[in-house]
Amino acid sequence: MNKILASLFLSMALLLSVNATAARLVISEGDFDAVACDAPVKVVIDFNSTTVAGLSLDEFLTDINHSGEFKHELNNYYADFIKRFNRKCELLMLTRSGDRAVILTVNVKTINTKGNEAYIEYVFSDAATGQRLVVVTGTTKEGRVGSFSNLVGDVIREAGGELGDFVARKIRKTNVVDDPIY
To answer: Could you write out the DSSP letters of every residue in 27-80?
Structure first.
């Protein structure tokens, strides 16, 4: 009996530690009521203001001689992010093409020097007015082995899934209608 309890306790502790390492996404501005739309949302991944160890991303990539590899991988980052997001969130679909009413800008703010952790600001905005509808922030960590560009790709892919799961939960929560009979 003691072995069973000890095993159960160990399993619960492991489960809690795994959940504690999951990304923590928070809404820092607005809410998803304003984002609800039937049309796909256009996504833009923005590395323009990204810093790595106090350097701009371009400076850091030049220092480690990865500028060409990073630019080559950018299309894969988009594909992986969109694929993971759309798999997790069927209520709001992302695309890279066409003019859309809502735009999701994935502002990658900081990346660690290994490339496997990033702090990201996700901004859903109205394409016509530029008004920010909802802003979600959080840190994503993924990948252990590979080049800087490869690990950044792992992070962006994981970020798409984490954000998709987060958005799906928030949209479902806002669409729940209380039944006044019960």
So the answer is: EEEE-GGGT--SSPEEEEEE-TT-EETTEEHHHHHHHTT-HHHHHHHHHHHHHH
**Cα distance between residue 113 and residue 152, in whole Å:** 10
Instruction: Report d(CA 117, CA 52) in Å as an integer.
Output: 10
| Cα 101 to Cα 106: distance, rounded to the nearest angstrom | 16
Q: What mean pLDDT value characterizes the chain?
A: 86
Q: What is the pTM of this model?
A: 0.82
Q: Give the tokens for residue 35.
A: 């984002």
CB–CB of 158/84 below 8 Å?
Answer: yes
Span 49-66, pLDDT tens digits: 999 999 999 999 999 998
Q: Would you state the structure tokens that stand for residue 38, as one six-digit string?
A: 């039937």
Compute the C-alpha angle 122/26/179, nearest 5°: 110
